[in-house]
């Protein structure tokens, strides 16, 4: 009987296992193999060389790209965490009716009905040298010269990331807040806890799983992104994803594969650190 149930369980898991093998394990295995190949201007040369990794890890361009990528990822993560937590807290604890919570949450998702590129491009006429922000500040006399840092800068890149990914932080935090037993908050209030003590000692610890899931979404997407840096950086800023994209454009597939493997290992290390800080299996 138990053997029969075990066979049924294996059959049920078979489609998912095959899907993961075909679309996750196999592509990663191919990328790892190709990363050790040689290449010239015309073809890939199968083999086993470490030149791609040696050049990658000893290049100052690579290290600068990683520094830029970490700067974008950490800045975006901090801002989206503060914004996402604040929005989720307002929706979960200050909006009393489920209908209004759903309506406001849907309002937050409306910008996501358009593509990321359209939403990024919409910032350009707003932040440009002759854009609406500079025109307003000049007309009011607050500045004498247009602000150059508003567009094609680190500021515009991080601003676009925050615009694109804040909802990915709001959603998991909001879900964990909605599952908090309100009697715990009432008990803390009856025990004389101040509002900030309830927030820091009751709500934040109970939202760790949501914060972790949102952090994974934001950090992994920023680490692998190249479109935002390309458009909002104006070609003046580099990231790891943009380096990989340029190597693919130049048909340097082994070099791009080596960069992808190093990026994958970096992201996995970040995820391992986060999972060490929060045991998500206990929190869910």
From TrEMBL:
One annotated GO biological process: transmembrane transport
Q: Which SUPFAM superfamilies match?
A: MetI-like (SSF161098)
- Keywords linked to the UniProt accession: Cell membrane, Membrane, Transmembrane, Transmembrane helix, Transport
Q: Which InterPro entries match?
A: MetI-like (IPR000515), MetI-like_sf (IPR035906)
Domain ABC transmembrane type-1 residue range list: 66-274
Where can this protein be found? Answer: Cell membrane
List where the protein spans the membrane.
12-37, 72-91, 103-126, 155-177, 198-220, 256-278
**What domain of life?**
Bacteria
Question: Is Cell membrane among this UniProt entry's keywords?
Answer: yes
Which membrane topology describes this protein? Answer: Multi-pass membrane protein
Q: Which Pfam families does its entry note?
A: BPD_transp_1 (PF00528)
For this record, an example GO cellular component is: plasma membrane
What the record says about family reads:
Belongs to the binding-protein-dependent transport system permease family. CysTW subfamily.
Name of the protein this chain belongs to: ABC transporter permease
Organism whose genome encodes this protein: Proteobacteria bacterium 228
């Amino acid at each position: 009987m138990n053997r029969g149930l075990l066979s049924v369980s294996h059959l049920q898991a078979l489609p998912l296992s095959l899907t993961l093998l075909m679309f996750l394990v196999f592509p990663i295995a191919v990328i790892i193999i190709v990363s050790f190949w040689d290449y010239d201007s015309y073809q890939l040369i199968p083999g086993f060389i470490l030149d791609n990794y040696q050049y990658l890890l000893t290049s100052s361009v690579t290290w600068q790209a990683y520094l830029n990528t970490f700067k974008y990822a950490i800045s975006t993560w901090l801002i989206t965490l503060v914004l996402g937590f604040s929005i989720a807290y307002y929706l979960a604890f200050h909006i009393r009716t489920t209908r209004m919570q759903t309506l406001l949450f849907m309002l937050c998702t409306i910008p996501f009905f358009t593509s990321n590129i359209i939403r990024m491009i919409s910032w350009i006429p707003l932040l440009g040298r002759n854009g609406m922000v500079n025109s307003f500040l000049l007309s009011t006399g607050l500045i004498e010269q247009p602000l150059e840092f508003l567009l094609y800068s680190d500021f515009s890149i991080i601003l676009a990331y925050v615009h694109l990914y804040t909802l990915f932080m709001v959603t998991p935090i909001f879900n964990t807040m909605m599952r908090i037993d309100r009697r715990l908050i009432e008990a803390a209030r009856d025990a004389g806890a101040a509002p900030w003590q309830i927030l820091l000692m009751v709500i934040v610890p109970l939202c760790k799983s949501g914060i972790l899931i949102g952090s994974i979404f934001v950090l992994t997407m920023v680490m692998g992104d190249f479109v935002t840096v390309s458009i909002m950086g104006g070609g003046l800023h580099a990231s790891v994803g943009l380096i990989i994209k340029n190597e693919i454009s130049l048909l340097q597939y082994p070099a791009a594969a080596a960069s992808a493997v190093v990026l994958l290992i970096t992201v996995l290390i970040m995820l391992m650190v986060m999972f060490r800080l929060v045991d998500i299996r206990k929190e869910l």
